[in-house]
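Hi L., both proteins are below.
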Amino acid sequence: MFDLSQQEELVLLQDQVRQFGAAVLRERHREFEAAGAVADEARAEYAALGLAGLELPEALDGAGLGAVAKVLVLEELGAADPGAALALDALGPALYPLAELGGEAALTRYALPLLGDPEARALLVWGDSERPGRQRRLIEGGRATGTLPWVPAARADLLVVLDAQGAAVIDSGFRLTPVKGSGLRAAGAAELVLDNAPLSAHWRDPAGAARALARWRLSVAALLTGLMRTAAETSREYALQRVAFGKPIAHHQALAFLIADMHSAVDASRILVQEAAWRADAGLPFADAAATAFVEAAEAGMFVTPNALQIFGGQGFMQDLPLEKYLREARTLALMAGGIDLARDLAGAAVADSADGFALSPILAEEP
């Protein structure tokens, strides 16, 4: 039996972020997408909510709330605008390699200075590819060289490269060239070129790298869950208003079943994300659970968002409505954190190694 109840302070936090997302980000998502950036007043309101230091340790003047709080916040921001969510977070998932491999010393040196600049951005990229015919490793011989054709940022004050062996911090020797992005446009889009860039710090720790990647996957899966939730709700509301053959199209059996399946997919994704986050906060192994949550969210996203668009028919493809944006961004998010194929390999191996398949642990709420 699962207990998904949350502590009161997390409920209040989630409600505040939901209101901010609905009133600020969702209302202006086309404006932010066209600009490739988030307006200053939105940044100021985000900072006023205290979300920048949500996962920073209390010793560094952060909230120290952990993974469950973070995925709750990211679901609400993803429901409003995933691209804006990335743009607003100065540290973003780059926090995870710094914390897992470098500890408080790395956070003090690299993370804290960025929090003082409302426009500063740290960028995390996956620097390891070992798929047949696509071998690529950005870090070789104490230097970083290579090109990534797309990253979700127009500015990077600090670059963190994560791979299976560890992580490196780079603060010079790279450049971003703006490109026209498809999804997550509010975060910006650029080609990243590393030209024999020196490493400011380099840690080799495969276990720490696996934890950092797992936390990155959780953040992306939470954004996907929020995005799917909005797509499913938007299409359901439309289906209840659109009348065909004398009744709302939502009352026709085939469409009613489809809408129910879409909402079930959102709920399943949320449960897996929160389960993995709870495991992380409890100090339990969570890499397999995070990979499973990421795969489920990415695959569910490609079920929910195309069907949400199809419920609107041809008008769903028009930019007057946000359905085409939901579809673009679901596809784009699935490319992050090493991509769905890498996560699927880990999740599949976890199932193969278990005689009974992958089993979820109960989510336990604290006793009052």
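That was the first. Here is the second:
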Amino acid sequence: MSELVLLSANDCHLCDHGKQVLAELAGEGVLSWREVPVDSEEGRSLELTAPPMRPVLYADGTVIGYGRLSAKRLRRQIARAEL
């Protein structure tokens, strides 16, 4: 499984929710992830390919989710070995 990357913005309730979902799944050993702030150098680079809604979740450089992230959906993707 690759490390997921969460592109997040400051003062973003959906970003906070996404971090909670990813932390929960990481705590279960389901996935690993890291956060990239949109105002960082890496974040500005990712933003070029990102949809306008935050947060944006990437796997291997490909957008796999954005907006309100779903733990159920991520579990299904992992079970199908899509991540």
